[in-house]
Amino acid sequence: MPSINIKTPSATYDVTIASGILRTLSSRLAKLKQGKPYRPFVITSPDIWAHWSKPFLASFPKQGPAAPTVLLHPAGERFKRMAAVESLAQQLALAGADRDALLLAFGGGVIGDITGFLAAIYMRGVPYVQLPTTLLAQVDSSLGGKTGVNLRAGKNLIGSFNHPLAVLADTDTLRSLPPAQLRAGLQESVKAGIIFDQRLFSYLEKNAATILSKKPTPQSEKALTHVVAASVRVKADVVNQDEKELGLRMILNFGHTIGHAIEAATNYKQLLHGEAVAWGSIAALHVALARKTITPAQADRITKTILAYGPLSTFKATAAKLVALTYSDKKNRSGKRAYVLPTGIGATQVIYDITDAELLAAAESMLAFMRQSTAAPAKKKP
Ligand SMILES: NC(=O)c1ccc[n+]([C@@H]2O[C@H](COP(=O)([O-])OP(=O)(O)OC[C@H]3O[C@@H](n4cnc5c(N)ncnc54)[C@H](O)[C@@H]3O)[C@@H](O)[C@H]2O)c1
Ligand SMILES: [Zn+2]
């Protein structure tokens, strides 16, 4: 069973990735709490709970303080707000949650980000465990301790660094994910391969059909678990070296400069995050090609692999609008844009001298490619 250690100056914990974790949850949590009494509070959404409450509850007593209290929060990015934190805190207080509480974030990135932030501030801090149920949450958002909520003024503008006691990723839960969510999440794995892990990239390149198999087989489950574990390893390696995003962690932002601009240009409604990142990655390849940090053959392999995890929804925006929107990226420092360029497959470089002209040319090439590629027409997010 793959278990990967996150070790940063502020926390050390394990990420476990396996099928069937939910059914043994209570003993795993008892171990984490080192036998000390605790009260579990599950924070999840109705759609996730409808699918997975049975295996989730199987290992817990039905009554008494060790029986989980379930707090349901509506699904969706628009509910990742301060109001959610206040409402959940109020529910915790009414349910008698004290410092013995253990919060369990059972859901995708939205539930994980809210719960991690709530855990940071409820009673000035209670422990929490990440139980990610989307591919994006398993390979990205549950790791690294970034938590928070959105403001009307922008995404993730309020939050804190707050690591969980552990991340327990049950790959079975991915079975109920809408296929588009799975594919979009896999774009973060493709990104991990491009920036840091040539072997992961080659594996994704060669095994797309198995990984995306509609009917789960032992082989496809094994392939997916392998990809999740390898992607987690990339993020863990990067976060372990740079917890607070002062340097190396920036590389996780590959594809995100234009990706975030695309999300903003389409009001966060038209594309899934991974799809926007995929288009942003294709734009980054054009910058890299112009600067000759990658070869046309490498760019071609990367593009084909990104598309293998498509189809990517298309969108309408001008290159100029996208470039203008890159100025509001949170990652910018004193007006300077950090930009992540591939320097091969499995290797990257962060540059600070990217010009508008370069970005404009790359965005235009990406948009031209989008128009002539066979990408599916834009559809609304489910
Ligand atoms: N903290 C970080 O470092 C970090 C990193 C990347 C992204 N994020 C955040 O993550 C969020 C996106 O996360 P996401 O893509 O997981 O979206 P999400 O949490 O909104 O989940 C997507 C949808 O799938 C449903 N769902 C979740 N698991 C399911 C399952 N197993 N079966 C069926 N349906 C399921 C959810 O209820 C929701 O409707 C964004 O808010 C983003 O800002 C955070
Ligand atoms: Zn991302």
State the separation between the terminal residues, measured CA to CA: 33 Å
Write down the Rg: 20 Å
Q: Number of DSSP helices?
A: 14
How is the largest sheet built, in terms of strand order? 4-3-5-6
- The CATH class designation of the largest domain is Mainly Alpha
The number of strands is 11
The name of the CATH superfamily of the largest domain reads Dehydroquinate synthase-like - alpha domain
Mean pLDDT: 93
Gross morphology is: globular
What can be said about the biggest beta sheet? Answer: 4 strands, parallel
Could you say which small molecules are bound to this protein? nicotinamide-adenine-dinucleotide, zinc ion
**DSSP helix fraction:** 40-55%
Strand fraction: 15-25%
The parts where pLDDT drops under 50 for at least 5 residues are none
Number of domains: 2
Under the CATH scheme, the architecture of the largest domain is: Up-down Bundle
CATH topology of the largest domain: Dehydroquinate synthase-like, alpha domain
**Order of SSEs:** EEHEHEHEHEHEEEHHHHHHHHEEH
Structural class: alpha/beta
Could you please describe the fold and organization of this structure?
With 382 residues, this protein is of the alpha/beta class. It folds into 2 domains: 3-176, Rossmann fold; 179-372, Up-down Bundle (Dehydroquinate synthase-like, alpha domain). The chain has helices spanning 25-32, 46-57, 82-94, 109-121, 135-141, 179-196, 198-206, 208-211, 218-241, 256-265, 273-290, 296-308, 319-325, 356-372, and strands at residues 3-8, 11-18, 39-44, 69-72, 101-107, 128-132, 146-151, 154-161, 167-170, 339-342, 348-351. Strands 4-3-5-6 form a 4-stranded parallel sheet. The longest helix is centred in the middle third of the chain and has 24 residues, at 218-241. The chain is globular and about 65 Å long. The model has no long low-confidence stretch (mean pLDDT 93). Bound molecules: nicotinamide-adenine-dinucleotide and zinc ion (ZN).
